Amino acid sequence: MSLLQQAKRLIHLYKFSPKKHLGQNFATDPSLLRRMISYASINTEDIVLEVGAGLGFLTQLLSKKCKRVVAVEVDSKLVKILKDQLRTLRNVDLIEGDVLHVDIPLFSKMVSTPPYSISSPILFWLLEKSFHCAVLTFQKEFAERLTAGVGNKEYGRLTVSTYYRAEVELLNHVSRDMFYPPPEVGSMVVRLKPRKPPFRVKDEKTFFDLLRTLFAQRNRKVRNAIIPFLRNRGIAEKDMMKQADSLLFHDRRVRQLTPEDFGALADEFA
């Protein structure tokens, strides 16, 4: 029985209705799942995190290759299916809950097809963790934002934050028919490997706070987009424009700044 047939059987058997708003599209192409495991170079010493375990197809394959799988699923109905599907696997820890709000044990690698609805928060969460490698399937448009060039319409906070923390490779296009039910958009497999930041900043919190504020107004000039940041730092209203006009790159648009430019700008405040 193919994975597509298994998916349809399980959904029917458990009277489960995939929820579009939660991005519940289950990968049913075995070649895709095997490639993801291969890209992560999974071995018997690895503890692998899987976010959005779904129907357990990837979980079962991972369990044959690694020391332990930490499978996280937020949907209680899917957890019931997973408990039945994975009951004989002794090296799988199933955690019910939102990965952003539950305790996750240490892991060495992450291999997942996370729900597209949490792509951005899960990536920012991951970049704060210690891990060796992550292989993830994202919506194609989201994946391309990770490596967008300066000034590109896809260039933003996500691009700069990821560049600062990790090396990113866009590996494979994934067609819609590799999922059930098929998503509305194409997907892409992405590999991330943590690295030392390519430039230094005096204070990372200031750097990331600055990115968040400025990219909320990416088409404005820095002197205007920086005002909310200055206000949050307690700068008096009467002094704001004077300070904004004294900053590096004050007359350039936010989208035109390189990651290193944001670092230099943050250092003025740190």
Question: How does the SSE layout of this entry go?
Answer:
Blueprint: H1 3-13, E1 26-27, H2 30-39, E2 47-51, H3 57-63, E3 68-73, H4 76-85, E4 92-96, E5 109-112, H5 119-127, E6 133-139, H6 140-145, H7 157-165, E7 166-174, E8 179-180, E9 187-194, H8 204-214, H9 222-225, H10 227-232, H11 237-246, H12 259-269
Parallel strand pairs: 2-3, 2-5, 3-4, 5-6
Antiparallel strand pairs: 1-8, 6-9, 7-9
Helix pairs in contact: 5-7, 8-12
The CATH homologous superfamily of the largest domain: Vaccinia Virus protein VP39
Helix content: 25-40%
Rounded average pLDDT? 95
CATH fold-level name of the largest domain: Rossmann fold
Strands, count: 9
**How would a textbook summarize the main sheet?**
7 strands, mixed
User: How do the SSEs run, as a string of H and E?
Assistant: HEHEHEHEEHEHHEEEHHHHH
Task: Count the DSSP helices.
Answer: 12
Rg from alpha-carbon coordinates:
21 Å
Structural class: alpha/beta
Strand content: 15-25%
Low-confidence stretches: none
Distance between the termini: 59 Å
Shape estimate: elongated
Tell me which CATH architecture of the largest domain applies here.
3-Layer(aba) Sandwich
What is the CATH first-level class name of the largest domain? Alpha Beta
Count of folded domains: 2
Strand arrangement, major sheet: 4-3-2-5-6-9-7
